[in-house]
From TrEMBL:
Transmembrane segments: none annotated. This is Quinone oxidoreductase 1. Residues 11-324 form the Enoyl reductase (ER) domain. It comes from the Bacteria. One of its GO terms (cellular component) is cytosol. GO terms for molecular function: mRNA 3'-UTR AU-rich region binding; NADPH binding; quinone reductase (NADPH) activity; zinc ion binding. It is an enzyme of class 1 (oxidoreductase). Keywords: NADP, Oxidoreductase.
Length: 326
């Protein structure tokens, strides 16, 4: 019998339960998938805590990779035996499982040179990095970015991709150990915000001009510093709220700080079109397969240890990507 991590109430990591589940046969537009690896993402904690509300009880996780075992009516782009990966949102919730039924539409066939474990570690993070670097802003060599959580899963991919585009990367981290990791993956400068003011240092590193773009996945705690780090008419990209939601603010602040731009993108809107998703995935896979972008899996867990994995993630003990190995 298959097993899955589910939650029957919202709260801390202890609400996660490891349970036996019946999977059944795929219906129209579905496949039955046997997981080989499942991704751990900060968004998972938002579902568990109730920040992203879903009907309960519910499964956990939105990213995984494995082998198709059966297909339902109308499924044509994948077949039994295909190795696939996926990420999504509500439509893929339930990835923390050994086997599951999943809509076929989000599935991406894996090239032979991308392992399932690598795919589970990078599909959400990699596609996020892909749209951030290729869709949000028309980057030119020599421009600069400020990258919060530079030693995290998305941060490590973005920093490597940014160097491929000829950008100067200023990363922020919470410890000296994470600073070393960030430098190894392309950060030109690293700010340890535990004992340095981010905006002051970012301005110093850019000779008082400010950076062209800020990628901020932290939210409440870094929002003001991020705005203060931008050049005139710079772009603030809010890509997450690890420290909590950004409080309401007067848009006049953007004018006062230099006619700044602000956007809050979501991955779902950049992979909704199958052709665009395929293009973003293809470029990502080619970089990884060629070794231009390295995917570091620094934490591996068993599914039954999901609560501990969430504790590690929320306490910022992790670097790079984390996966559940089935």
């Amino acid at each position: 019998m298959a097993k899955a991590v589910r939650f029957h109430e919202t709260g801390g990591p202890d609400v996660l339960r490891y349970e036996h589940v019946e999977v059944g046969k795929p219906g129209p537009g579905q496949v039955r998938l046997r997981h080989e690896a499942v991704g751990l993402n900060f968004a998972d904690t938002y579902f568990r805590s109730g920040l992203y509300p879903v009907p309960l009880p519910a499964g956990m996780g939105v990213e995984g990779a494995g082998v198709v075992e059966a297909v339902g009516d109308g499924v044509t782009h994948v077949d039994v035996g295909d190795r696939v990966t996926y990420t999504g949102f509500i439509n893929t919730l339930g990835a923390y499982s050994t086997e599951r039924l999943v809509p076929a539409a989000p599935l991406i066939r894996l090239p032979d040179d991308i392992a399932c474990e690598t795919a589970a570690a990078m599909t959400m993070r990699g596609l996020t990095a892909s749209y951030l670097m290729r869709r949000i802003y028309d980057f030119k060599p020599g421009q600069s970015i400020l990258l919060h959580a530079a030693a995290g899963g998305v941060g490590l991919i973005v920093s490597q991709w940014a160097k491929l585009l000829g950008l100067t990367v200023i990363g922020t981290v919470s410890s000296d150990a994470k600073a070393a990791v960030a430098r190894e993956h392309g950060c030109d400068h690293v700010i340890n915000y535990s004992h340095a003011d981010v905006a002051t240092r970012a301005l110093e590193l850019t000779e008082g001009v400010g950076v062209d773009v800020v990628f901020d996945s932290v939210g409440k705690d870094t929002f003001e510093a991020s705005l203060n780090s931008l050049r005139r008419r710079g772009l603030m990209v809010c890509v997450g709220t690890a420290s909590g939601p950004i409080p309401p603010f007067n848009p006049q602040v953007l004018a006062m700080k230099g006619s700044l731009y602000l956007t809050r993108p979501a991955l779902a809107d950049y992979i909704a079109d199958p052709a665009e998703k395929a293009e973003l995935a293809s470029e990502l896979f080619s970089h990884v397969a060629a070794g231009r972008i390295r995917i570091d899996i620094n934490q591996r867990y068993a599914l039954e240890d999901a609560a501990q994995a969430h504790r590690d993630l929320e306490s910022r003990k992790t670097t790079g990507s984390s996966v559940f190995v089935i």
